[in-house]
Amino acid sequence: MKKTYHLCLSAGDEVMFRDVEDYNRGFNCFALALFNTDSTRLVESEMSTHYHQLIQSRHPEEFMRYFRLSYGMYFNRKYHRCGKLGEKNHYTMEVIGYNHMIAAMSYVLRNSVHHGVSPIPYAYPYSSVNSIFMKEMGKEPCRGLLDRRYYHRFINRASAIPDNYVMSENGVFLRESVLDIPQVENLFVSPRAFNWHMTRKSSEEWELEQGRDNNNLPPINLSVIEKGINITTLGDMLVNENGKSNYRRPSDMDVCAEIDNNILPMYSKDSVYQLSRQEKQQIAEYLYRTLHISECQIKRCLVM
Length: 304
Prior knowledge:
The protein is an alpha+beta fold. It folds into 2 domains: 3-241, Alpha-Beta Plaits, CATH 3.30.70; 252-302, no CATH class. It has helices at 20-36, 60-79, 98-109, 111-114, 175-178, 181-188, 191-199, 204-210, 222-225, 234-241, 252-263, 277-291, 295-302; strands spanning 3-10, 40-46, 50-57, 91-94. A 4-stranded antiparallel beta sheet has the order 2-3-1-4, sandwiched between helices. Strand 2 (40-46) and strand 3 form a beta hairpin. It is globular, with a radius of gyration of 19 Å.
């Protein structure tokens, strides 16, 4: 019997998705991991340094192993990197009960807000939030679709592809063709209720509601859902949730684009992983002067 799990993989002190191609390939790898392990995905959110998702599976460890192997091979090949990508052990939490499920899905879909990357969940493109209640929320389905003959340009050529998976011209599977959107919509009941949960503030009342599930588990909140993710403090996440974040500051993808596209050619390097410690220090000083970003953001984008 399948159980529901919240899974989170952190990249540790580096960036897991440096550009749009990485985000797209990451989702494709997750989609194929679902198919190959007979798992069902409910919601997910890709962040530059970590990946949250809620899946239903008999074998969550096998699912994560499949993803890590396929995406890690892609990432290492592209960036001339060696070794296992991400932390040694990913985070796994079983989710039991309706109220726990709603809370877990809500926190995953609002992850970009909590990390100050977007002002509202719907403004963030690398999650499944815009695939839920699409018609009712006024979202247009993707019309530029790729012919199935060319899918293997964006996934491993040996991969089997389910008939229901549909890919956009940008080379990423449409989330609505991969995820169990009807189940998610049934759980949230209505577009109005879904929208309310996307804007609901963290509170003791929300935690108390989860006690109705009688599952003897602690309530799901920010500290639980973000366990092991150290790029944003709990206090800052609550500030961001209240709409007080500076989401216009350079994102990790902006900083990585500056490094990979503009700075690396000056050093005749193809990847940040080929830079020496001294070269990284020079670049770090330049980024600090020109972009006025934090030291920790510079370090993870430069893998220092």
